[in-house]
Every structure is written in C-alpha cells, then in structure tokens.
Amino acid sequence: MRMHNPAHPGEVLKEYIEGFSITEVAQKLNVTRVALSRIINGKAAVSPEMALKLGKLLKTTPEFWLTMQANYDLWQAEQRTEFNIEPLFN
Length: 90
Hints:
The chain has helices at 9-16, 22-29, 33-40, 48-58, 62-80. The chain is mainly α. InterPro entries: Cro/C1-type_HTH, Lambda_DNA-bd_dom_sf, Toxin_antidote_HigA.
C-alpha cells in the first residue's frame, strides 16, 4: 500500500494557472468553466483529451497529467477497497 495521499491533478493545475481566471483558462482549453472548475476542485478526473489540452496550453506532457491522475485514482481505490484474494502463484 502506498504511504501518502497523492495530490489530485486539479490541485496542481490550480497552481499552474494562478493569476488567471478559470473562465479565461477554460476558454483557451475550449471547455466549459464548469468542466474546468470540477477538475480544479477534485470533483472530476483529467481525461486523456484534457491531458492533451493541458499539455499544449501549459507546455507540459499529457503523461504528466495522466500519471498524476492514475496515481491519485489508485491511492483512492486502495483506501476504500479490501481484497480477499490469494495470489495465483506462490
């Protein structure tokens, strides 16, 4: 089990766009203000399409955003799921 709670990509995105309005950034990304706000507030995930857009806008890579989302999702799943599965191989 992972030892820390990874940040939702929205938290990191919030830092990247500091000084710009959500409306302004949403327009540049060609998404609604609501869609961007949901990501920033951790209520929605970064999709592959959004990762491509963020990469282009912020001069990062799509992998940066998708890896962060995957790490967040995996940690969240580990916190709420208890598997009672024995390994296939000993």
